[in-house]
Amino acid sequence: MYHISIISSSIRTGRKSHAVALYLQHFLNENKLATVEILDLASYNFPIFEAPLKHQTNPSFDALEFKNKIIQSNGVIVVTPEYNGSLPASLKNAIDLLYEEWHRKPVAFSTVSSGDFGGLQALTQLQFIFWKIRAWTFTANFPVSRVQEKFDDYGVPTNKQETDAFAEIFIDEFMKCIESSKK
């Protein structure tokens, strides 16, 4: 069984994207598709980026732990809101801490917004960033528009049947990507 890490990237008070991370964790667990761990950037308290982890003389315990969890993951799902047409600084900070660790790592995206477009501008930027650092991304994604209407704070969707059907397609494609990366 594969191990998936879900990065919950928002560190804002009252964040809604974390509910989507919880939902995806529940979905993977309920369907016994993988072991899952949420890497909640709100709990890491990374310093503002000064240098990649490999160039830091005294890296924090949190940064080393994050690195090891990424290495141990067969794939990573990034769940992020779109802030002002982009991704949160907390996520870019965490991505930039690592480099070799992302190489050939299967990475999938779930972008979230309170509006109608489901974070598609953040998705475009994430695809480019992860391509640039040589991660393996793919075109299937899990955008969530009007997140405040579609999930409660615990990750329970308001329309479970519809959300599960959409998640099934997304996760199936992601698992195929992970499988292909092992060949």
From TrEMBL:
Broad EC category: oxidoreductase
A GO molecular-function descriptor: oxidoreductase activity
Protein name: NADPH-dependent FMN reductase
Domain NADPH-dependent FMN reductase-like, first and last residues per copy: 4-144
Entry keyword annotation includes Magnesium: no
Domain of life: Bacteria
Pfam family for this entry, one: FMN_red
Entry keyword set: Oxidoreductase
EC number: 1.-.-.-
